[in-house]
Write a structure and sequence with these properties.
Blueprint: H1 6-101, E1 116-120, H2 126-136, H3 140-147, E2 154-159, E3 163-168, H4 183-191, E4 195-196, E5 200-201, E6 208-217, E7 223-232, H5 237-241, E8 250-254, E9 260-263, H6 272-279, H7 286-293, E10 298-304, E11 311-319, E12 326-332, H8 333-406, H9 421-467, E13 481-488, E14 496-504, E15 507-515, H10 519-537, H11 543-555, E16 564-572, E17 577-583, E18 589-591, E19 597-599, E20 618-622, E21 628-632, H12 634-637, H13 648-657, H14 664-679, E22 688-695
Antiparallel strand pairs: 1-3, 2-3, 2-7, 4-6, 5-6, 6-7, 8-9, 8-12, 10-11, 11-12, 13-22, 14-15, 15-16, 16-17, 17-20, 18-19, 18-21, 21-22
């Protein structure tokens, strides 16, 4: 049979690909039309947004420029008022100073009780001061002139002698009044020149007031008194309310604390405090706040998104020259932008109408082209189906045989005579099947060997586990102490071990040890170490003497240079004395009753099976009822998580102290859970062993 290559078959397939190409062209064309439609909509939207943005900018700029001029004019009016009042205060001070410096030039002038009032400080000799008060009565003319036709609500003079003359609004009657104790008097006295006070509640009940005060002096330079003018803040309302250009315009005079001390008289909902609280906590308004406080003239935009004042504002601000106050005006941005919005809506209507015409035309073209593509696709499908059938028949045969092989029938032989690459593929699969059968035979033998070794390791694991005491409570008849222990090997068998047993009726021995290395060698050395330590303890030696003997015994024939870190402790049950020796092992942690766990640190000696010359030292600690000791191996503190971070000594101490009044079993379970949460499924690198004992007492 004449062989043909798969390349020729692909060439035949190319004939059918023409139809596929038509679909691709159609898809691209439809996509292009949809893209054109999308771009038309985008251009329309962008044009509308640009027009709206430009109109907003123009209107905003015009409003801001006009409003800045208005607010600057208002600041000038306020400053003019303040300057006028300051000059009036200084004029009144010069009159008072002339009276006291030239007493012979002035006769006694009684106060007009209809307009002026006199007070004394408590304890003042009114008879003695009568001549001076009579002369000071000559200041009435100057005070009357200041009060007539002005916004000054109260003018006054207070003296170092303790009397006080005021003119203007009738004050609330009072038995005594000492001007020398008032803030305006004290501030003017200390400054030595004209001062303005901060806003305060008027002493006579007239509401929020600011005072301009000027000191006057005797001929010898000593302070004679202070004159002043009271201006009630309500008298400034008209200045910041006049000339409003916008319905939503709201103006305030604020002090250095950001508090509104004067607001527009027709401002029905004074929410400045809420606005100020909001903007002082927003990082984007830091520069704006600085500009306001430094008295800069300018404007900005605020967006207040909460409560009943959710809105955007144009904020305009300027400072006063006389007082550290600022005028702040807010205008609702929606009102400013309303003309621009109307213009934008009109333009948007015309743009949207044009976009709809283009969109409908494109939709009609897409429907026509889609109909033509459907007809072409139908005829192309018929041709492609016949060609695909002839091409895929050998592949179907190949697939059927592969399913038999995959199901386990490795005796299947694929027979194909196509004369092309598919035939060569079938031959390769037949060869692979033969090699797979040989590989499975070899794998079966290896698996059987591994299962045998695994079974032996499992037996070794059970033997090792059986060597460690694991029945709790271990001494049901003894209630002087509680004890619990846990050991989890990193491999099938491990090198860690613990032990506990009664040496006699009054002595409990506990052992915690860690053999160097892992696996079978460590497990064998662990068995030897455990047996030697227990047997030596039962000879009646102390912990230090036991380690001295065991160290030499483990060195004999130790050609692999393995070693053991260990702690051996004796608990004298009647007294609670705990005697122990540490052969290079982790320090235990101890908790006294009512306290927290802390390190029971002593200088450890060298590990067992190190050198013949090592001498071990014995330590003692007395346990009281309720005291607890936790022994552990480095598999606890050196456990790592997936980021290779150590659990560590500090975390062990934190875990042990995180819950109080736990039994030894609960303590070990709690620490183990904390350790598992830390490692989060990371592979266990070392054996984990813990033993906890609580002394209960007789």
């Amino acid at each position: 049979m004449k062989k043909t290559s798969i390349l020729k078959r692909i060439f035949k397939l190319m004939l059918s690909s023409i139809i596929i190409a038509l679909f691709i062209v159609g898809a691209v064309t439809i996509f292009g039309m949809l893209y054109l439609q999308h771009n038309t909509a985008t251009v329309s939207y962008n044009l509308r947004e640009t027009v709206m943005e430009d109109s907003f900018v123009v209107f905003n700029d015009n409003v801001r420029n006009d409003a800045e001029k208005i607010i600057t004019k208002r600041a000038e009016l306020v400053d003019e008022k303040l300057v006028s009042w300051q000059l009036s205060s200084e004029l009144l001070a010069s009159v008072a100073e002339d009276i006291i410096k030239n007493p012979d030039s002035y006769n006694n002038n009684n106060l007009d009780n209809r307009l002026f009032w006199l007070w004394y400080a408590e304890g003042v000799d009114t008879v003695k001061l009568a001549p001076e008060i009579g002369r000071m009565g000559n200041i009435q003319g100057a005070m009357r002139g200041l009060l007539r036709g002005s916004d000054i609500s109260l003018s006054f003079v207070g003296t170092e002698d303790g009397f006080f003359i005021s003119g203007g609004r009738a004050p609330t009657p009072s038995e005594y009044f000492d001007p020398r104790t008032r803030p305006w008097y004290i501030e003017a006295k200390e400054a030595g020149h004209t001062i303005w006070t901060d806003v305060y509640d008027d002493a006579f009940g007239f509401g929020l007031t600011v005072t301009c005060a000027t000191p006057f002096y005797y001929s010898n330079g000593e302070l004679a008194g202070v004159v002043g003018l009271d201006v009630h803040l309500s008298d400034l309302d008209w200045i910041i309310s006049d000339g409003r250009s916008w319905e939503s315009e709201k103006s305030h005079i604020i002090n250095r604390k950001g508090e509104a001390i004067v607001s527009s008289v027709d401002y029905t909902y004074n929410n400045w405090d809420e606005i100020w609280e909001f903007i002082t906590h927003r990082i984007e308004y830091i520069t704006l706040i600085d500009d306001i406080f430094y008295g800069t003239t300018g404007n900005g935009t605020l967006y207040i998104p909460y409560a009943d004042i959710t809105s955007s504002y144009i904020i305009l601000y300027t400072g006063l020259s006389i007082l550290p106050w600022n005028i702040v005006t807010l205008i609702d941005l929606d009102e400013v932008n309303e003309p621009a919005v109307i213009m934008q809506n009109n333009i948007s209507y015309f743009i949207e109408n044009s976009a709809n015409i283009i969109r409908n035309f494109i939709l009609a073209m897409i429907l026509v082209f889609a109909f033509l593509l459907l007809i072409t696709a139908f005829f192309s499908g018929v041709v492609s189906n016949a060609f695909a059938h002839s091409l895929t028949k050998p592949i179907t045969i190949l697939e059927t045989n592969l399913e038999l092989i995959a199901s386990g029938n490795l005796d299947t032989v694929i027979e194909l005579k196509t004369g092309d690459e598919i035939e060569r593929l079938a031959d390769s699969i037949n060869s692979m099947t033969i090699e797979l059968k040989e590989y499975i035979d070899n794998l079966s033998r290896v698996t059987a060997e591994k299962e045998r070794i695994g079974a032996e390791l499992d037996v070794a694991k059970r033997i090792q586990a059986g060597m460690l005491p694991n029945i709790f409570p271990p001494f049901p008849h003894r209630d002087e102490f509680e004890l619990y222990a846990l050991m989890e090997p990193a491999k099938e068998v491990g090198g860690d071990f613990y032990d506990f047993f009664l040496v006699d009726e009054n002595t409990l021995a506990v052992v915690m040890a860690d053999v160097s290395g892992k696996g079978i060698p460590a497990a064998l050395f662990m068995v030897i170490s455990k047996t030697v330590i227990k047997n030596t303890v039962q000879t009646g030696q102390s912990p230090a003497e036991v380690f001295n003997i065991v160290n030499k015994m483990l060195l004999e024939g130790n050609e692999t240079n393995m070693f053991v870190t260990a702690i051996l402790g004796y608990l004298d049950i009647p007294t609670g004395k705990f005697s122990f020796a540490n052969a290079g092992h982790n320090p235990p942690i101890i908790k006294k009753a009512g306290a927290k766990f802390e390190w029971l640190k002593v200088k450890p000696n060298l590990f067992l099976a190190g050198t013949e010359t090592t001498t071990y030292v014995q330590h003692e600690v007395v346990l009281n009822p309720g005291d607890e000791i936790l022994l552990y191996t480095d598999g606890v503190t050196e456990a790592t998580n997936n980021s290779l971070e150590f659990y560590g000594d500090p975390q062990l101490l934190v875990a042990a102290n995180s819950k109080q009044n736990l039994s030894p079993r609960e303590l070990i379970a709690h620490v183990k859970k904390d350790l598992d949460d830390f490692t989060k499924g990371a592979e266990q690198a070392d054996d984990i062993t813990m033993l906890a004992i609580r002394y209960v007492g007789s």
